Amino acid sequence: MTDIDVAVTLLDRVQALPETGRAIPDAATGETIGYAPEHTVADLDDAVARAKAAQPAWEALGHEQRTALLLRTADAIDAHAEELARLLSREQGKPLDGPNARFELGGCSAWLRESATAELTSQVITDGENDIAEVTYRALGVVGAIGPWNWPLMIAIWQIAPSLRMGNTVVVKPSEYTPLSVLALVSVMNEVLPADVLIPVVSGDREVGARLASHPDIDKIMFTGSTATGRKIVEASGANLARLTLELGGNDAGIVLPDADPQAIAEGLFWGAFINTGQTCAALKRLYVHDAIYEQVVDALAAIAAQMPMGNGLDGGNVLGPLQNAKQFEIVKRLVDDARARGRRIVTGGAPAPELGATFFQTTLVADAQDGDPLVDEEQFGPALPIIRYTDVEDAIASANRLDVGLGASVWSSDRDAARAVAGRLRAGTVWINSHGTIHPKIPFGGVKGSGYGLEFSVEGLKAVSETRVIAG
C-alpha cells in the first residue's frame, strides 16, 4: 500500500459522508479533499459530559502510567507521520519539504514526549518542626482546546499534551478551515488513549466555539488565534471563571543593529519572516534596519527570496505555499496594494501568483515602509515583509514597542552584549538574538499586551493546566 493510499484510509476514518458533512478544499488547488462532520451545541454538551466522566479515572492512573501512554501516543504519531503530513499539506497548504508539514509532524511527537516526561514535583516551601508548607499540583478537570489553522497539528499538541499529562481530559475544537488533519491526529492518538480522554468537536460556525468557552463544566480554555476572538473568549469565560491561556495575534518586530553582517543574517531573517509562508503568529512581521547597512540587508534578503520555490505542497522541492484561505489572501493583497499606492518600494513580488493557484501570493519584500503604514501596523500574516529604515536605535526601540502586541521580537547584531541590551528593552514575551521564532519545548513561551497571557511549554506549561494546592501544617 502506498503512502497516498494510507492517507486516504486515514481520512476515511474521520470524514463525514458528503451529504452530511462540509466540503474542505485543498488549499493549493481548491479541489475537495473530504467532508468535515458538523457538530451541534448538543454534541458539544455530550462531549464535555463524557470528558468530565472520564477525567477522575484518567487522573487516578498517576503520572507514571499517563507518561507511558503519552509516549506510546507519540510513537503512534510517528508511525502515521507521513500520511498525516500529506493530509496537512493539502488542507493547510504548507509544503511537505522545508520547515513545513513534515517538520510540523516531527514537532508534534517531540513536544508530546517532552510534556510526557517533564518533571513537576511538589515543593516544600517551609520545613519547620511544626510548620511544613508544601505546594502540589493536581488536574483542573476538563480543558477546552481551541486551535488555529496555521499550525493546526502542532498547536493542538501544545494544548493537548500538557493537559493530558497533568490528568485533565480534553475537548478539542479545531479551526473550521483545517478540521480534517486535526481529526486524523486525534484519531491516531485515540488508538492508544482510553475512551473519552480526548474528544474532538467540529463545526463550521462560531456557536460551538462560543459554547465551549462559556460551558460550566470546562475548567480551562486554551486558545490560539486572533486578539479579537481572544477578547470574546475572555468575555464568554467570565460566567464560569474558567482559567485561560491565550496566545493571540502578534506583529513581531526585528531590529538590525548597524554592526550586523547582512550576508550572515539574511537567511535567518528570511525564515523568521516567511516560515509557513508568513502564516505564523510569532513570525517576523516588521523589520527595522539601520541606515548604515539598510540597502545591503534589503539586497541580501532579495537574493534569498529569489532562491525559495513556491508551489503545490505535495510537489517535492517547494518550501512556500499558498495562503490557506481566500480571506487571508485578500488581507495580504490589500496591505501590499496599499503599500504600493503609498509609493513604497516593492523589491520582490508584490502581486498574486494565479498561475500557481487562487490563493498564492508572491514572496514580497517592501522597502522604505514607515510606521503608520497599514502593512506595518496591521498583522499581515502572509508572505509580505515591510522593511523600515532607522538611524537612531532609540527610535527603533520605540517603534518596536509602540503597538499593542508583544508575542515575540528579535535583535540582530555581531555584538551579543549590545543585542542583549536592546533586547531587554523590548516588550515581548520572547526576544530572540540573531534568530526569530525559534521555539523549544523546554523553554516557556507566551505573549504580553494584546498578544495574550499565560505560558506554554516546559514545566511552566504543566503548571498552567494544573490546580495549585498548598498543604500547610
**How many structural domains in the coordinates?**
2
**Global outline:** globular
Average pLDDT figure: 95
What amount of the residues lies in strands?
Answer: 15-25%
**Radius of gyration, CA atoms, in whole angstroms:** 23 Å
- Residue stretches low in confidence (pLDDT < 50, at least 5 long) are 1-7
Distance between the termini: 63 Å
What's the CATH topology name of the largest domain? Aldehyde Dehydrogenase, Chain A, domain 1
Order of neighbouring strands in the sheet with most strands: 12-13-14-11-10-15-16
- Largest sheet data: 7 strands, mixed
Helix-strand category: alpha/beta
Q: What level of helicity do the residues show? A: 40-55%
CATH class designation of the largest domain: Alpha Beta
Q: What is the strand tally? A: 18
